[in-house]
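Protocol step 4 of 6: record predicted structures for both targets in the notebook before any analysis. Target 1:
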Amino acid sequence: MSLPDFNLLVTLDVLLAEGSVARAAQRLGLSPSAMSRALARLRETTGDPLLVRAGRGLVPTPRALELREQVSQLVQDAQVLLRPHQALDLKGLVRTFVLRTSEGFVESFGPALIARVAEEAPGVRLHFVHKSGHDGTPLRDSGVDLETGVVDSTANPEVLTQLLFRDRFIGVVRAGHPLSQGPITTARYAAGRHVYVSRRGRERGQIDDALEALHLTRDVATIVTGFSTAVALAQRSDLIASVPERYTSGLRDGLCSFALPVEVPPFSVAMLWHPRLDADLAHRWLRGCLRQVCGAEQVQSPPP
């Protein structure tokens, strides 16, 4: 039995990534005619056209879409397997890591992380990009190296997860606010005007459910999309902000913070990354830096 030409895997990976014979040829240093012949061999081998003409470009067939992720992972695994193992030279490392996180996380933990990275690897740059949802596509498609977020049932099972810290919600008001003095009861808390944080546009959350169970309702005066905005509003008004304690640790200087008078479950904040980067020495080092900056518990949950 003749073995298949495994070089075709690399060719197929590049063709599916580029969606163009000319661009794929340029990327692999081949002539367009040579790439066209390689595509013909792939079509013969797989029994599928893989890429078909649509206007001036090529679009993948359903079979090609089915193969794309598997082929990409096989090529990446082979590259890791055949790459010589070398010790990581942090002082000589030149690389940009893209971290997808919220502005509040950057404000609270970014300064310490940037300082740590600069001290150990001055040639490394951190590029923080805004996080707007739980979509794991940027991690899978190489657009993002590392992500932070709350671990919940919607976490993408394709990615690896490691706990950074556990957090809880607390109340925050300006100095001199009525709640900055005396015991904070559920009635006093509910009677105030509140700023509510919702990235998805919801008008109520767990705190409202907890209050409703006690036959109380709070007055939500405004809804914002970020905790740092909520803290800023509480600092300059009589609004009450309910925010994560550790997540906003660097934002609450000069403010009065207090434990919520209602039961709200704590939550876990983790970093997430794609398995293709798990063995990368530089990426491992970065994960270690973030874990230490956040005072992480070293508990890892691989995908099922």
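Target 2:
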Amino acid sequence: MSNILVHKGETRGDANHGWLHSRHTFSFADYYDPERIHFGMLRVLNDDIVQAGRGFDMHPHENMEIISIPLEGSLEHKDSIGNVSIINSGDIQVMSAGTGIYHSEFNKNKDKQVKFLQIWVFPNKKDVLPRYDQITLQKDDSHNKLQQILSPNPDDKGVWIYQNAWFHMGRFDKEFSLDYRLKAKGNGIYAFILNGDVTINGQQLSTRDGLGTWDIDKISIKANSNAYFLLMEVPMST
């Protein structure tokens, strides 16, 4: 059995609601593909565009780790535990929904759209006290490097979640290459190409393609053009 899968960008679920255009890597809402329910503990990878002044009204979540990464524009966040904040391109936001949390996300801009990734990861600890955090990433830390933006450890770099997972972002110049060694046995890695052309373990990928691989110790990454991508290392089973 092959330990690699590729999701080409154009094969993702496509939901266009006018105010929201969302591309779903994994089954979500009205998009269902039995071959694409999740990748290990990675449950949702939505690539969202929200029109000016529009957004998601208050809605509930529970027992899920929810990560938002704005790629363009600004989102206004409000939640039921008292947080009101703006997350901008270059920030990362995390919520541990735990016993239950309500939140809303709106495009703060009145004249331009906002683009962001919405990612859900199954937690390894249920019914925790809901929590919220966000940080601003340093763009230079991902230039021809893998910048850690999420981990299981509150004292480590980036935000943290209740799961044995690590996320990294890279902005590679053309022809730059680097290996990534997985941090935990039993984990797999899902790569999502935000922009450019990349080869991972011999597989050529382009903008908005995804690649998942498991039962490996490391992956080899080479940029075939200037490229921007996200690596998500997650457990493959509970």
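Step 5 preliminary note on target 2. The chain has two domains: 12-124, 140-235. Residues 140-235 form a domain with the Jelly Rolls fold (CATH 2.60.120.10).
Proceed to step 6 after PI sign-off.
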